[in-house]
Batch of 2 targets.
Target 1
Amino acid sequence: MVTRALALALTASSLCLRPALADPLQIQVTSVRAAESGPSDPQLVSLRPRLRRLVGYRAFQIVNQEVRTCDWRSEARFALPGGRHLQLLPKGADDDVVNMQVRLLEGRRRLVDTNVRVVSGGTMMFGVGRDPRIGDSALIILLKADMK
Amino acid sequence: MTCDEVGTLIDAFVDTELPSATLLEVACHAGHCARCERAVQDVLAIREVLVADVDRQVEGLDLSGVWSHVDAAIARTEGQAHWRQRGDAKRGRLPRSIPVWGSIAAIAAGAALYVRPIGPVAVTNPAPSAVRVASKRLPNHVYIDRLAGKDIALRREAKSGTTIIWVNHEVEGSGW
C-alpha cells in the first residue's frame, strides 16, 4: 500500500515538474535605437517612460523586429544592427517560466553570456552603448519569450 | 427579595452599581428589615472611615517639589531628543522617532512571514544558483542564474520588474 502510494506520488510529481516543452515557444526580438533627443516610435509610447527610467535616453525608434517560433533545446540566432546577433538556446520551462541561454554577440565576441529565466509573456532587455551623459545613442534589444 | 439575597447585593447597592429595579428592591427591603438596614449602615460606616483615612494620608503628603521635578525631566528629555535629531540630520539618518514605525513595520513583516508560506527568493545577483520562483512575480521579472561579460551592469525597474543587462560599449559603425 505504501509502495503504491509512493509510486503514485512520484508519478504525479514528475508530471507536475515536467517542463512544458510540448508548447511552442515564440520569441520576439526588437532592436531599438535610443537617442538623447528626437521623435519616439508610436509602438513604444507605452514603454517609453520605463525605457527612460532604465536607460536614461529620451527618444526611441524601432530599427528591427523579428518574431519567430523556436524549437526547444535548439539554438536560434537573431540578427541585430551593427553586425551583432542575439543567440538563444531555450532549455526548458517550469510552469510559465522559460529557461534559456542568451548570448549577445558582436561578430565572434561575446558581449553578454547569460542564463536567464523569463516569465512567459514578459520582456527583458539588453542595452549596448555609453551612458547617455557621454554617448550619443545606444542599442536596446527587447527580448520577449511567450509560450503559447 | 430575601435577606440573604440583599446581603450579597449590599456592596453594589452602596456603590449604586445595581440596575434601578434591583436598587429599588434592595432599598424597599432594607426599609422594612432592621437587620439589612443595619448591614447597609455598617458598610456605609466602613466606607466613610476608609475615605477619611485616605484623605488624611493624602493631606499629609508633601507634593510641593513634584512639579518642578516633572518639568526638569521633560526639559531634559526634549533636549536630548533635539540633539539626537540634530546629530541624525548631520549624519543623514532618520530621526529616532522613526524606529517606532520601523518596529511596527518589522512586526507586520514578521507576521506576514509567519502567516504566509516562505517562498523562495528571486535571484538578483549574477552568481549561479538554482531556479527560484517568488510567490508574487512581476510581469517582466527575470531570474538571472549566470551572467558573464565585460563591463556590464544590471538594472531593474521595481514597478514592473523589467530588467536590462547593459553593456558599456561604443555603438560606432552600427549602421543605423
Target 2
Amino acid sequence: MIAVKFPFVRIDDRLVHGQVVEGWLPYLRADLVIVASDAATRDETQATLMRLALPESVELLVLGTAEAARHPALSPGGSRRALILVPGPREALALLEAGARFGELNVGGLHYTAGRVQLGKAIFLSGEDKEALRRITELGVKLSGRALPADPALDVAGLLNGEGGGR
Amino acid sequence: MVEAAESIVGRQDQGVRVVAISSRQSVPEIRERLSRALRELLGGEGVILFTDMPGGTPGNLAFPLVKDMPGVEIISGVNLYMLVSAFSHRREYDLAGLVAKVLEDGQRSIRDIRQMFLAKVR
C-alpha cells in the first residue's frame, strides 16, 4: 500500500464518516483525530456525532485551523499517530500558512457541488480549490488522490497541470 | 448495499455474489440463480449467505439448498454494517469466528441515534 508518515492529513468534506472510521483508522492505527475546520468548531451537534462515530480509544479534537496548526501533532517530529481531517483545500492551505508542517496531503472526498469540475471518482474541484491545491504543491507538499488506503493514488498535481485551466 | 460497503472498506475483487430477487421471477429461476452463485463461491474457506429477514423468500429458498452443505452459513437481517464488518474481517477469522463477529457488529449497529446523542451530551 503506502508508506505512512504522521501527521497524515486528509481532505474530506464529510470529515469523520464510514471511510475514515472503517478504512483509514484501522489502516493508520491512529490514536488522535484532529478535525481542523473553523466551521466545525461552531457546530456542537456535528462534533458530538463525530465523537460517537469514533472508537473510545481514539482522541478527537475539533479545532479551528489556526489552533490546529499550533498543535504539537502538526509540528515536525510530532510523535502522535495523528489523522488530520480538513473539509477542503482552503483549510489545508490555511494550516500550512499558519505554520503546520506535513509532506503529503491525501485528497480524499470532495463531493459534487454545482460548478465543480470532476478530477477523480470522488474528487470535484472548484476554481478556488484548484488554486489552493496549486499553492499547496508550491509549498512542497505532495498531493495524492485516494479515497481508501487500498486505492491506487491519483496524481492530483499532474491532473491540475494537465488540465491547465481554472485560473 | 454491496457497493456502499465497498465504498467504505474497498472493492472486494472476488468472493462476493449478489442475487437480487423480485416478484417477476419464478421460484425455480430464483433457486437456480442462488445455486449458481453458491457453486461459484464454494471451494474457499466458507460462504456466508446474507438474507433480508427470517422467513423471507430469499432465506426460505436458500436454506434447503445449503442445509446440508458444510461451510455455508446463512444469516438474516443484513444491514450495511454487517457487510462492512464481513468485508473488513474476512481474512482474519475462520467461518465460525466471522459469523460471530458479523452478528455482534450488525446488532451493535442498530441504534436509536437520538438517544445515543442525548446520552453523550447528557
